[in-house]
Amino acid sequence: MATDHLDKVETDEGAFVVLTKIRYLGFLKMPRSSVMPFKTAQFLRTPGFRIHYSTSDPQVLHEWHQMIVALVRQGLFQAMADGARVGWFPYPDDKKHLQQFVKPFTVPRRVLSAGVPVERLWLGFPRSVARSRFPETWVLARSVEWFAFPAFLSQSALPLCLAIFPDWLPVVLLLVLDFSWRFFCHTFVSVTIAEIGYFFWRFHWLFALLSAFFLFYRDHPIYAIVALGWPMISTWSSVVTNVLAWKLGSPATLAKVQVRLSRAIGLDLKQDTIPVSDCKPNNV
Question: Where are the domains of the chain?
Answer without folding.
Answer: 5-103, 140-264
